[in-house]
Amino acid sequence: MPTLRQLLEDAFASDGLDLRLHLIRLPKTDLHAHSLLSPRLEDFDDIVGARVARPPDTFRDFNHFQAYIRSDLVPHMRGPERVFDLIRKALLRMADEGVVYTETSVDVLVPQFLGITVAEFAESLERIRVDMAERITVCFEGGLNREAPLEALSTALEEFLTTDCLGSIDLYGDETIAPPGQFRKLYYRARDHGLKLKAHSGESCGPDLIREALECLEVHAIQHGIRAIEDPHLVDLLASRGTVLNVCPTSNVKLGIVPDLGSHPIAHLIERGVRVTINTDDFTVFGADICDELTNLYEYSHLDVDAIEKVLRTGIEEAPKSVQTKISQSSMQTVKA
Ligand SMILES: [Zn+2]
Questions:
Q1: The model's pTM
Q2: Is residue 336 part of a domain?
């Protein structure tokens, strides 16, 4: 039975479509994916019945990126049916490229935006999760937007906590708006319910906010976190704590956080012992799936097969035991050493 290492060597000995077909067969995870920004643009067109405006190739800054989402995508997310169709399409796209486990976020205020109860919303998500279970294991993540009123987030989260719908929470949005410490109480509530704790940090802001997320929110994983590289002591701390950085290189380039894939710090973070995974963030906007990201890591970001194997294994280690067992019993046997 081929090992993951052998499969990766075979994959990178080929190129083009052949490389992609090899990569699709590997068990992969996507632990940083905003579900409503994860379908193909073509699926968006089909669901909304119009051609949605295409994103620019790069954004001037985070505000420019948010303006595109708010003016060109969000207005199409009307009505529960469309929203659930978009989530379903996003998950099907992931399954099609061989993602076996995802932690995919949905803003906790979406039910209110749609005019339905959290219980109704959770019931529909559960139906989607069960329908998809043969192809992909889904952990729905409660997205907490830093820019929303704390009281509204707290109320919505409490309602979600009565449903068993969420497996994790994540703080997202403009990092300059509200520091992580403000959300401490929400994180403790989620922790008491056994949810995995994650937060966006160290993307547009520097290492100090990553430290704050670690100390105040006790997060298990940081979404992005790449600016930790600016503080060697923080890098050591992340490595010693085993904190996972769910990194999205294409997103970082398109938002101007790093100038290009060649100067992305991912290789250095891995060398220094930080647990790193590779993810898509917003496929609808950035257009790179996990297979594309893996190809880019090899071709442009100075990662060799050893480092890419480590990245894939870290993702699988983050998946539930049931997923790991399924992979080890499959024909690939790739989780075994
Ligand atoms: Zn994100």
A1: 0.96
A2: no
Q: Is position 334 within any domain?
A: no
Amino acid in position 213: A
Cβ atoms within 10 A of the Cβ of 148, count? 18
Which residues lie below 8 Å from residue 10, measured CB to CB, with a gap of 6+? 2, 22
Answer yes or no: 123 catalytic.
no
Q: If you search the block for the tokens 């995919």, which residue do you land on? A: 104
Q: Is residue 267 in some structural domain?
A: yes
Whether residue 198 contacts residue 224, with contact meaning beta carbons closer than 8 Å, is answered with no
Residue found by looking up tokens 């449903």 in the block = 163
Rounded Cα–Cα distance for residues 42 and 244 (Å): 32
Q: How far is the CA of 104 from the centre of ligand 1 (A)?
A: 10
In angstroms, how far is CA 223 from the centroid of its own chain? 7
Which ranges of the chain would DSSP assign to H, the alpha helix? 4-12, 16-25, 41-48, 62-68, 80-96, 110-114, 118-132, 150-161, 184-192, 207-217, 232-241, 249-254, 266-271, 283-286, 290-300, 305-318, 321-329
Write out pLDDT tens, residues 64-100: 999 999 999 999 999 999 999 999 999 999 999 999 9
Q: What are phi and psi of 40, to 5 degrees?
A: -65, 150
CA of 166 to the centre of ligand 1 (A): 17
Structural domain tally of the chain? 1
Residue 272's domain spans which residues?
A: 4-320
Radius of gyration of the chain (CA): 19
Instruction: Kindly name the residue from 159, 203, 212, 309 that is annotated as catalytic.
Output: 203
| Position 29 in a domain | yes
Q: How far apart are CA 225 and CA 214, in angstroms?
A: 11
Query: Ligand 1 centre from 33 Cα, in Å?
Result: 7
Check which CATH number belongs to the domain holding 87 and give it.
3.20.20.140
pLDDT tens for each residue of 33-71? 999 999 999 999 999 999 999 999 999 999 999 999 999
